[in-house]
């Protein structure tokens, strides 16, 4: 029997795409500051979705005693070798402690010392009991009035006309339903992109990666296809992790002061530098030059430190605690082997994402970005994503009020009947197709192999040259054409088809950005063999915009200290 799709229509003041960290906080802010109605469209379930799904054991962006927001800006700027938006970093940093207090008020347990002060971990971190941090946020959202949460509903594209957003289309991942959601303003909070490259652990364990495998770059892809300007996709993120388990290394490095050592016991941290990318690069070089494997030196730590590490990893990466337990050796009896992950595109750690103004509005009018999808503001982590959700929410509420006073008041109910009909037919075609040659999984693996081989993945030690990038571009285009003939047995499989297409769109932008920056500014993050050195001439942003199907590169001057960028379009 032929499968049919039903179209359901929703109307709201503000649509939030993604119910993760930034999305939840945006909803809380909107309802605190206004009577605006809100819809949150969440691909999974808001109770356990996004980067906080499994919890965290520290707040990694906090202004501890003796430090200032400007200190945090300087740290993030240095780590990103200058390619940041100073105005975005400062507005984010100024809100870090405020949103942390709000989390504590909502029920998050933050560790305190005998004087009632937060227990710091380094210059920017505080310790928390954060296994339930996402349920805390979700429960707070659930208690709000006039907020509708659509769980298991995946937004697939924006409704945009004349560079003004009017809502979005979404699919139900269980029922044969296409949603047409009309909104006055839209906040994108979908997260970054994992799964573009071949991961550390292939096959059955490919999901064991640093960044959530369910974050497929949907927000990026929708923005790219709608003509939004994007920034700094060439600043990929590669995490230094515990080998095999891909568990965090920061808890070991900062928690017990473990140094990075090679196979002959030499400390190599200072040899290569201590920025995030340099720590990865040092490990890569030590292995390439025959001094691997590399480790975090935990041998000789105290029994109390053993217990602390075992407990800490149970909170966020239990597989690492299990690995220690199964080996019969505590961390004090064996060093922890480390390796780099595959590259990700994630604006919470690097500067990749939408090109936004200080209100986090993108170049599409009425569309805001917060958290991992917002570019220009690296090292934001959990609290920075919360701040950006707050900033975007406040701006959206204010813009709705401003629209009311305009004589040319925008009619926010825009619908194209032909477009909706064609989209419905497209979905039905995928659900009813019987002649597909390849599966979604096969094309995904092909995509990851191309990116790994030709666009600087693990297999090439994160290195690439222009000829390789040309081949990557050609082969990704071939896979995109093949993906047009995929089939799905149900809506859940249809989601996988869309996720593959999202990743492929992001791959194209990553390749274009890697080609456009003709230097090596961040070792490993963007290791360009044709241009192995950094240059002052490249202290600028590499942006891009899709126009008539063609991706065009835009170079912009740095927004420096004391400067502010606002859109002029």
Care to describe what's here?
The chain is of the alpha/beta class. Helices cover about 35% and strands about 20% of the residues. The protein has 16 helices and 20 strands. It has helices at about 20-35, 70-80, 85-95, 95-105, 135-140, 220-225, 250-255, 270, 275-290, 305-315, 320-325, 380-405, 415-430, 440-455, 465-485, 490-515; strands at about 5-15, 40, 55-60, 110, 125-130, 145-150, 155-160, 165-170, 175-190, 230, 240, 260, 295, 335-340, 355, 365-370, 465, 525-530, 540-545, 550-555. The strands form 5 sheets. Strands 1, 2, 6, 7, 8, 9 and 16 form a 7-stranded mixed beta sheet that branches. A 4-stranded antiparallel beta sheet has the order 15-10-19-20. β8 and β9 form a beta hairpin. α6 (about 220-225) crosses α16 (about 490-515). The protein is globular, with a radius of gyration of 23 Å. The mean pLDDT is about 95.
Q: What characteristics describe this protein?
A:
single chain; 569 residues; 4-stranded antiparallel beta sheet
Question: What is the secondary structure topology, with strand pairs?
Answer:
Elements: E1 6-17, H1 21-33, E2 38-42, E3 56-59, H2 69-79, H3 86-93, H4 96-106, E4 109-110, E5 126-130, H5 133-142, E6 147-151, E7 153-161, E8 164-172, E9 177-188, H6 218-225, E10 230-231, E11 240-242, H7 250-255, E12 260-261, H8 269-272, H9 276-288, E13 295-296, H10 303-316, H11 318-327, E14 336-340, E15 353-354, E16 367-369, H12 381-404, H13 417-432, H14 440-454, E17 463-464, H15 466-483, H16 491-516, E18 527-528, E19 540-547, E20 550-557
Parallel strand pairs: 1-2, 1-9, 2-6, 9-16, 17-18
Antiparallel strand pairs: 3-5, 4-5, 7-8, 8-9, 10-15, 10-19, 11-14, 12-13, 13-14, 19-20
Helix pairs in contact: 1-5, 1-12, 2-3, 4-12, 6-16, 10-11, 14-15, 14-16, 15-16
């Amino acid at each position: 029997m032929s499968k049919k799709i039903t179209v359901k229509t929703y109307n709201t003041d503000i649509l939030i795409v993604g119910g993760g960290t930034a999305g939840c906080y945006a909803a809380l802010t909107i309802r605190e500051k206004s009577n605006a109605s809100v819809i949150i469209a969440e691909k999974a379930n808001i109770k356990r979705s996004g980067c906080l799904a499994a919890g965290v054991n520290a707040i990694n962006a906090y202004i501890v005693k003796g430090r200032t927001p400007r200190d945090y800006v300087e740290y993030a700027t240095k780590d990103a070798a200058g390619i940041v938006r100073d105005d975005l970093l400062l507005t984010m940093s100024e809100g870090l402690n405020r949103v942390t207090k709000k989390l504590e008020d909502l029920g998050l347990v933050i560790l305190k010392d005998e004087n009632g002060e937060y227990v710091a971990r380094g210059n920017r971190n505080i310790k928390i009991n954060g296994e339930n941090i996402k349920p805390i946020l979700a429960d707070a959202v659930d208690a709000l009035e006039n907020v509708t949460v659509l769980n298991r509903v995946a937004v697939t594209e924006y409704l945009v006309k004349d560079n003004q957003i009017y809502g979005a289309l979404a699919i139900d991942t269980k029922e044969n339903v296409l949603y047409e959601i009309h909104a006055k303003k839209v906040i994108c909070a979908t997260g970054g992109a994992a799964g573009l490259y071949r991961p550390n652990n292939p096959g059955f364990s490919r999901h064991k990666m640093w960044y959530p495998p369910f974050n497929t770059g949907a927000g990026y892809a929708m923005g790219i296809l709608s003509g939004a300007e994007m920034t700094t996709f060439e600043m990929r993120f590669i995490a230094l992790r515990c080998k095999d388990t891909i568990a965090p290394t920061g808890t070991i490095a900062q928690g017990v002061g473990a140094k990075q050592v090679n196979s002959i016991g030499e400390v190599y941290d200072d040899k290569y530098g201590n920025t995030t990318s340099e720590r990865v690069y040092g490990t890569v070089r030590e292995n390439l030059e025959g001094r691997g494997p590399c480790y975090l030196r935990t041998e000789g730590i105290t029994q109390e430190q053993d217990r602390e590490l075992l407990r800490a990893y149970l909170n966020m990466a239990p597989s690492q605690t299990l690995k220690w337990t199964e080996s019969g050796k505590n961390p004090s009896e064996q060093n922890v082997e480390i390796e780099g992950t595959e590259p990700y595109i994630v604006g919470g750690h690097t500067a990749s994402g939408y090109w936004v103004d200080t209100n986090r509005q993108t170049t599409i009018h009425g569309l805001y970005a917060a958290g991992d999808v917002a570019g220009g503001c690296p090292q934001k982590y959990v609290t920075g994503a919360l701040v950006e959700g707050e900033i975007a929410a406040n701006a959206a509420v204010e813009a709705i009020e401003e629209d009311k006073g305009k004589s040319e008041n925008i009619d926010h109910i825009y619908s194209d009947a032909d477009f909706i009909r064609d989209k419905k037919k497209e979905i039905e075609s995928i659900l009813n197709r019987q002649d597909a040659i390849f599966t979604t999984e096969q094309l995904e693996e092909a995509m990851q192999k191309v990116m790994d081989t030709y666009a600087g993945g693990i297999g090439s030690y994160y290195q690439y040259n222009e000829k390789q990038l040309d081949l990557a571009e050609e082969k990704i285009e071939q896979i995109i054409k093949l993906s047009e003939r995929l089939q799905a047995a149900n809506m859940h499989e249809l989601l996988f088809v869309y996720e593959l297409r999202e990743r492929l769109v992001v791959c194209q932008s990553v390749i274009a950005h890697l080609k456009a920056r003709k230097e090596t500014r961040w070792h490993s993050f963007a290791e360009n063999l044709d241009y192995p050195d950094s240059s002052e001439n490249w202290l600028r942003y590499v942006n891009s915009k899709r126009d008539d199907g063609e991706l065009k590169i835009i170079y912009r001057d740095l927004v420096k200290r004391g400067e502010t960028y606002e859109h002029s379009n």
